[in-house]
Structure formats: C-alpha cells, structure tokens
Amino acid sequence: MSKTWKEELGDRITNELGEEIDIYETQMELKRQDKITNEIFGETRLRRGVYGQRYDNGQRFDGVRTQELAYQEGLTKGVNTVWDAPGMQRIKIPFGGVTANQLEVLADLAEEYSDNILHITTRQDIQLHYVHIEDTPALMRRLAASGITTREACGNSIRNVTACPLSGVCQTESFDVTPYAHALTQFLLGHPDCQDFGRKFKIAFSGCHHEACGLVAMHDFGCVAVLRDGKRGFETYVGGGLGAVPHQAKLYDEFLAEEDLLPTAQAIARVFARLGEKNNRARARVKFLVAKLGIEEFKRLIEEERKIMPEDPAWTAYLDDLTVTNEEPLVDASALNGQARPEGYGEWADTNVYKQRQDGYCVVTVALPLGDATSDQFRALADIARAHVKDTIRTTVEQNIVLRWVSESDLPEVYTALAEAGLGDPGAGTIVDVTACPGTDTCKLGIASSRGLAAELRTRLAAQSHELDAAIKHFRIKISGCFNSCGQHHVSDLGFYGISRKVGEYQVPHFQVILGGQWTENAGAYGLAIGAVPSKRIPDVVTRVTEAYLEQRQGDESFQAYVGRVGKAKVKEMLDDLTAVPAHDEDASYYTDWGDTREFTTGDMGKGECAGEIVPLIEVEMQGSEREAFEAQIHLDAGEYEEAYRKAFDAMLHAAKALVKTQYLDIPEDADQIVAEFRTRFFDTQLFWDNFAGGKFANYLFRHYEEKPNSHDRDTAHQIIEEAQLFIENAHACYGRMNVVNA
Amino acid sequence: METKSISFKIYMDKGQELDPEVWFRVFNTWIPQPDDDILVDVADYSHVKNGPVTILVGHKANYALDNTDGRFGFQYTRKRDLQGSFADDLESTIREGLKAAARLDTDPALDGGVHFTGERTQVVLNDRLNTPNTDDTEENIKADVDAFLSRLYAGGSAKTQRKQDARQRFTLDIEAEGTFSPSQLLENIDS
Ligand code: SF4
Question: Which residues touch A669 (CB under 8 Å, ≥6 apart)?
Fold first, then answer.
C-alpha cells in the first residue's frame, strides 16, 4: 500500500487549508460519480487554480487533420473538457514573495507532476503545465505545507495581489507597499463578499508613480503609495484593465488613508458583486461597471456601501505590526572593491543589478527566458538565496525572479553561481527580455504562437545585443497569443497580439502590431494597433521600426513621442510590404507558426476558462467594434477629429455587422449592404429596439450613414463617439436578448 | 516497495546538435500513431539550459530529449498506471523507454542523425513520498535493480551510482561495459 501526502504531511498543513483541499477532493469524487455538473465542478477547480489547457477537449490538429485523442470516454472535468487531459495548475504568489524552501517545493512538484518546468506569469504567479487532475490534491497539500495556497488563483475571484518587486528596497518609493499587499491578500482571500463576482478582480500595488513595476493603471483596483504630511496612504485607481478593450483606470481617490484601504477594497468588492454584469462575461469586469456608472456615481456607491458595512477589526488590526513582511540581509553590506570579476560579469551587472536604497546592497534580476526555469534551476536559486540573501526572493511581472539584499561584494560570486546554473543571462529589462503569454503552446484561446515568436526575437536580439543602440536597448517587447492581452502588449514599446488571416484556402498566423504603449508611469498609456503582419515577418517589423526610430528621432525624443510625431499612418506605411503573404506553393513557411512545424490552424482553439471564456464569433466582432470606438477616443484626444469620426462610425458598422452575422454569416464587408441588412433584420423587426428608447440607437447608425458632416470638429467627433458607445452597448443587449430567446 | 512514477534515460552521443524543430517535427508525427499510449502534445523548451529540450507529452508517459546536468539523452517518464511490483514496474518502464528510443533510432526523419549509448543510462524514481532518496530505498530495490541490469546488459558488469543530494529524487546512474543500442537492450531483456 503506497503512502499518501495527506498522511505524510499531517499537521504541517493548517486545518483551514487542509479542510479546503479535503472539500475539493470530495468534489472530485462527486464529479467522478457524476453527482455534480460540469459547470459547478469547472468553477470549483478554477477557484483552486486548476485550469484547462489546449487540447483538453480531446482533439488536436496534427498539421493535416484534426485527430481525436483516444481518452477513455465519459468522464469530464468541465464542459467539453476531458478528465484525463492534462491541465495547468496556477499557483498564486502574493506580491511575488517566495522563500528558498518554497522554491524547492515548487521544484519537486514540477518534477513529479508536471514537465520539469516552472513558468512565471505576467502577474507574478507560477504555473505548472501538463498536470493530471488526479495529482492536484497532493500538489496542493505539498504547497499548503510550505505556506502556499492555490485558492482563488483562477475563476471569478480576487486574483493574485501583485506589487513592485523592489518594494522596500526601491530608491524612489514613498514607502514599502509589501505589508499592505500582504494584508489585503489575507483579508480578501475567501472573503464572503468576494464569492459572487461575474468575472475576475485584479489588484496591484506600486511604491511610486513614475516607474512601471506595479502597473496599477491596468488593474481593477490599483494603489500607489503616497505620503501626505508624513501620513501613509494610497492614490487609488479603479476600473483599469487590458483585454480586448483596454481601459485606463480612473482615479478613485488622491489619498486613501492606510486605515481605509481594506474597507474600501471590501466595499468595491460588494458593489462589484451586486451591480457588475453577470450574464455577459465580455462586459463583466469592473472597468465596464465604472464606465457604465461614471466614476463619480461609482464612488458615491462605494461610499454609501462603506457606511452600511459592519465594522471589522481586521480592517486596521494589521496596522499594529507592519513589520511582518520586513526583510533582513544575510550578509553585511560591503563594497565591491578589488574582487576579480568573472567573464561576462560586466555585461550582466549593467542590466541585471539594481542598487538598493540601502547602501551596499543590490537587487539581482535573474532573467528567465520566456519566464521558464527548470526544477534544478529553482533548487540552485534556493541555494544561492541561502548563501547570500536569506528568503528575500520575488517573482516579477516581467517573468523574472529577483534576489534582494545582495551585498555588493557578493555580486561576482552570485553571478558565477547563477551562470553555473544556466541562469546568468544578461539583458534583464531590455529589448532582449521579451514577455509572452502562453499562447498556442498551452492556452485554449491562443491564436498565434506568442512564445514561439518571443523565443525567435530573443535569440535574434541577444545575438545583436552588443551593437544595440542605447536608445532602443530598454525597449519593452510584449506579446499575447490573442486579443485578451495576457502578455500585456498594450503597455509595451512594441506589442504584438496573435490573429489569423485567411489567404486563399489557408489560414496564416499574423500578429497585430501595437505601437505607442507606455510601460513606465505604472502602464501610463496604451498602444494602438496599426495593422496585421504575418507572423514570420514580425522580426523584420522589429528591425525596421527600431532602425527608423534611430534614424529619424529628434534629439532625445522618446519612442512614444516619435510615433506621435511621425504618425501611426507613416509607421504603418513603412511596414506595408511586410504584410504580403506569398502563395502557399511559393513559400509554405508563412503557413506555419514560430516554434511549430504543423500547418497553421485555429481549429485547436477551445472554449476558454478565464480570460475570454466563451468567444463566439459575434463577441470577437463586437470586441473589434469596441476597439474601434476606443481608437476613436484616442484620435479625439489627439485632436484628429475626422479620423475619430470615421473610427466611431466604423465601430457602429462593425457592431451592426456582428449582429447581422448571427443570421447571415457571409455578409460582405460593404457598408451599404450591412446597413440594409441590419435595417431589415434588426430594426424593422424591432429586435434592436430598446424597451425605453425604441429605435433611437439604430437611428444613430442610419443618420451617420446617410449624412456625413461637411467639416469636423471636436463636438461632432465627441458626439458620434458617445453614440457609437451607446450603439455598441445596445448591440450587446440585443445579443443578450437573442440568447435568452434562443435558450 | 511501490513507486508511482519512474523515469528511464538513455544517453546519446549524437543528436544534441540537431535543431529542436527536428524533434518537434518527429514527435508531431508520432501523435497520430501512438504505441500503447495517448500522445497529446509537443512542448519546446530548447530555450532553457540543462533541462528538457523537447517533450512529447502523453497520457501514460512523457517522452523527452533532455539535457539535465548537461548530459544529453532520451528520457521516458512513466507517470501513470504503474501497478505491478517494483520489479515489474521497473522492467515495463525500461522496456517502453527502449521501444521509444528504438523508434527514434530508426525514424526516417532523423536519417541516422542520432546515436544512443545504451551503456550509459539513468533510472529516476519520480516519487519522493514512496521512494525517497535514502539508503533504505536503495536497500529495498537493490536486488530488483541488480537482477534487471544483469538481464539488460546480458550478464555484463554494470556499475550504479546514486545521486547523493537528498533533495533530488532517487536517481541511479548506470554505466555498463561494452556498447549497446536500444534494440540490443530490448533483445537482451527478452532473451
Ligand atoms: S487568452 Fe490569449 S492572451 Fe491570454 S494567455 Fe491565452 S493566448 Fe495569451
């Protein structure tokens, strides 16, 4: 009889965590006996971080045809998700903080239950892939015994609370946000007010405004540390998010005192649970609620909520001891004087070492290619940490790991140890350090290979790194496998997200090129798509755009300013020839993706469980229309009124087409036909009519289709954007009504 | 003694220089033609150092080109459905691993670009709970391992060395005298 981890670990797991895992295991058993539904079990496992993975519907395209994988029939772990199919386990790492012991446990789990690889995500989590569901309870128990829970790592819940990896040692922070991130994590974990969301809820902390580390502007709730008259508080933001329709967070409060942080977060959770969209997942994030209500009304509701919430001592109890997350160095600070510097040290130290505000100490960034490390490398990191820094280790949103509190004099030794473990790559935080979501490697929603492209770019750029001009060296490249933005492509200098284009009989992997995003200032600006380029030509895009910038920039002009000055249209023109796709028999390489040898297909895409959930065609189209409305807004901001007008009209047309497509799939890309079909099918039938406003929203489209303004100014552009947004809203509502009718 | 998962690695002295895309292509052709497994996906990890290079992920086992410790070879990891005695499970793992290695050895797409050195192999007990890296485990499995290696190497001498780092899984490095291909080793087991 073999032993079990439950017996082995015994009271090394807290009762609470132990009971939770017992319940999960019971639910697994109930599912095996078919006593609970796929939907319920699906949400149950997601809330424990047990995620679906590509091909878990039991099918895979082999390059010629879609093959059935011969799993035992019957047992499923979610809708259309085969029980035996390998999945992904997401492990929450609050504020990225891990200990040496935890690194070792994670290494063991990757060896025994996964594929020997640990993957750092863009939200400081760690993911294991190809995990069998039967192994998940043991895996969770082993994590629990080391102080890690996977609870609420996925699902409609409060996700990992992230924070700058430099918190506490940063030269520019107002104060260390770590104890606050820790307290909020503990407070909201499993909180009854956080169990009925329509979608996920993401929180981030940043120690200052101007750096990128916290990325608060792209979070549902973001907190920037602020000192006012010596008192600690946070400038708080709500309703940010990337996804298909990125929203910059709105300022909620210029100074939220530290004692108000937890109750305010709780109040936001309660209002989100009560008023947030539940039926249409595509509109269910906080950003849509804030957009719908307006920030003032949203704020009023939160304040009202706070007044009626029962007082909870936990709101402020943690303030009595903010030292719980304090760190201490292992080694006394001493300067790097005459020590021998190993080969490669200089280049590495230039990019991978940050001087802490504490004299004589540094943060070392361990650059992980594509965010991946092996189990042996995690153990080596644990050894290095024990030898040089204790447990001061954090994951980063750039998919790396940092070791904090390294005494300067230890740096050469740390570098040597890292290099021996295959972890001595230079280039952290530079153009070489490409970020990518899992994409088609493992994600069910992936369209193109973000990791394949990232690996290719990394290899090419690393080879040129010695020659790279300083002006582009610190560019950020970020890649997502689809529009859901897990690779954070909107907040990079050069961003890409995967799409597919039909060429003749074939599908060809492409990436949308996104320019003008801003990584610093906590993700200060979002880039916009300038056009689609075949996947295989993206490295040429990088070369061409960076070369043009170096040639044409004026003085110290930033890349964002350069793009703004020359205009996206000009940059797009520069790439025009790269968009051509040769016929299949001329060059078949265009028809496979990076890192894959199969003919490209989107047939392997499945139903997502997180970022996009259900992505039927109409929603993809609808998201396209929302993006156009967003772009119209940007044109408006830039004073480009005619362009703003055109985009907003296109957005309405796009939404109308999306609806028409539900009845007439092959509707041509022709405005006359779209409007005519929309009128017949949705206006005349009153399907598009609003209960109160009747046909008013449809008339926005008809009016702008029939009469274009003679001149363009801010007011007309502003008006059509508002109308487009209402039109799109009503299109969503109409689609929702159609679903109800069809159900 | 039971263990839930066993890895068997057979080292190679030719093949490491191949473009990882080649492995991806070969494994991709295996997926529609599984040999007593459900083959699911190919994962490329050629960007990490001293670890897996390319893995064919199956339901019952993983099949990997692997460079752990800087030693390149083919690793078969049986991860599910081991239900016999330790001796049976060891034999079935090594037998399946050798069959897969032999398949690679003769895969036309590799066109002689690989060479296995079956005299250097490794067995890992991938189950720290039931078979930790301890003297006790070594003691418990010694007779089964010795008996099997004697068959595998047709009575020739084979030295084993255990990895000493207590954090590592129970790992035996095996070195035999002579030269052996995967198919020869399979023949030895069956004779
Ligand atoms: S949903 Fe899209 S962006 Fe997110 S991980 Fe999957 S492929 Fe990447």
Answer: A657
Of A54, A379, A458, the CB nearest to B167: A379
- Determine the number of helices (DSSP H) and then strands (DSSP E) in chain A: 24, 24
- d(C-alpha A588, C-alpha A586), whole Å: 7
Q: Strand A401-407 to strand A528-534: parallel, antiparallel, or no bridges (unpaired)?
A: unpaired
C-alpha torsion A382→A323→A90→B25, nearest 10: -40
DSSP states of A202-225 as a string?
A: -EEEES-SSSSTT-GGGSSEEEEE
Tens-place pLDDT, residues A159-191: 999 999 999 999 999 999 999 999 999 999 999
Q: Which residues line ligand 1 (CB under 6 A)?
A: A 437-439, 443, 445-446, 450, 480-482, 484-487, 611-612
- Going from the C-alpha of A488 to that of each of A2, A476, A482, the distances in angstroms are 45, 11, 11
Kindly indicate the confidence band of residue A610, based on its pLDDT and cuts at 50, 70 and 90.
Answer: low
Q: Which CATH number fits domain A169-325: 3.30.413.10, 2.30.30.40, 3.40.640.10, 2.40.10.350?
A: 3.30.413.10
- Average predicted confidence (pLDDT) for chain B: 96
Kindly provide the ipTM of the predicted complex, given to two decimals: 0.98
Q: What is the mean pLDDT of chain A?
A: 91
Task: Evaluate if residue A606 carries a pLDDT over 90.
Answer: no
Q: What is the pTM of this model?
A: 0.88
Q: Which uninterrupted H or E stretch holds A178?
A: helix A178-188
Contact A445, A615 (CB under 8 A): yes
Token pair 């009469």 is found at: A707
Sign, Cα dihedral of A308, A314, A319, A323: negative
Structure confidence by residue, pLDDT tens digits, A534-555: 999 999 999 999 999 999 999 9
Interface check A10 vs B, CB under 8 A: no
Q: Considering the domain A612-743 in this protein, what is its CATH number?
A: 1.20.120.330
CA distance A138 to chain B (A): 11
- Chain B residues whose beta carbon lies within 8 Å of the beta carbon of residue A422: 48-51
